[in-house]
Design goal:
The chain is of the alpha+beta class. It contains 15 helices and 14 strands. α1 packs antiparallel against α7, α1 packs across α8 and α2 packs across α3.
Length: about 475
Amino acid sequence: MLFPPPAAILLTMGTEITHSHFDAADFAAFQRRLAEETALLGRWLREGAFPARPAQGGYELEAWLIDREGRPAPAIERLLPLLNDDRVVPELARFNIELNGNAFALAGDALSRMHAEIGATWAAARRAARTLDLDLLMIGMLPTAEQRDFHLGAMSPLQRYRALNEQVFQLRQDRPVQLDIAGRDHLRLSHQDVMLEAATTSFQIHLRAADPDQAVRLYNISKVLSGPLVALAANSPFLFGHDLWAESRIPVFEQAIEIGQSDLTKRVSFGIKYAEDSILEVFEANLKRYPVLLPVLFDEPPEALAHLRLHNGTIWRWNRPLVGFDADGAPHLRIEQRVAPSGPTSLDLIANAAFYFGASRALLDEEIEGQIPFATARDNFYRCARDGLDARILWNGEVQVPVTELLRDRLLPQARLGLKALGIDRAEIDGWLGILDERLASGQNGATWQRRRHARNGGDLRELTLAYREHQESGLPVHRWAI
């Protein structure tokens, strides 16, 4: 079973829209339907409409289409017909692609089956790209990309993206996007459209909750784990010739679609607090605090929650709760963990997912929200995005500790226990978390490899990108990549 489109029904893999202009009547009608569906979701949660079912995991993998020089290749319209696979879909830019996975029951050899699926889809997509004398690369941000690559002419030729750009800039009163990111270098620039979002590609991990009570806990736990996970997975240090954060996707995405004057209304953010009693609190915040971006009206009954899901998909929380439907029509709740970048290899991706699945399950047995205040979880996240494996964070009221020490001594052992509790096979646990043990021992994730290679080759971003592609093709996990 494929998870339904990840809430952003029209922004990823759903039905195309016919126009990008809306009037006041469209917004008013959408708001009424959104309120009706939010109330319906609340009734379902109160009345126990969500059946208890075993945990499931899934993913979305975003990647770059590149040419022989490792530069962005805006050719998605030529690639997709060669694939003819509805799991592989366009993204915002004509040089981005998204691979969607099936939902896997988290038991037995689920992680290896997930890895096999990614590998098969990835191999087929690369074969198709190579018939066009192009290739695919899974990397958080492409070192060779230049600001001039990100313009409306490079946007996927779909009305839904044009509508998004138009509505974002109406809310911004046509003010240009301003990037201001202080890392190892300092990058400042202005941009006239939403296309800088296309500079960021991710590996979005989905975890279906067993029931609504678990969903609210998983949402909070996902926030707690965001810092350690992004440090472990960081793979995006370079943008437009500048060495910024270990995971520069985080500030780029937040600033590329910056709408709202405070944390209460920003569309891309870590949030303002934990959920307290119900996951409904997040959807009620969507209704009350966030202006509608795409007032597309669906000819579907309220029970489809089409307007609620679309609106939720235009609010890009780093940890986003989603409502979906199983094959039998029963609703479910899942968390989309959005902090991990694309790459470096499919082995690294599934190892990261294994950590998230296992640690989330283990922390369900702790009152982690009481140990890690929300403000601490938020600060930890940005420290880890900035400093990667060099980050020092607060944990459980302690003084700052190296995130590598926290992962090695506490969180990875907890992830092992959590995967065992889910019913994952012992060999699976040892194999996938063993990759992370070795990554920590080596001190090398994607970001550190890129920076080391960049220092060695004298700052040649083309050479860096082509060497990255060669190593990715080897299939070895990143901790085994030679500099």
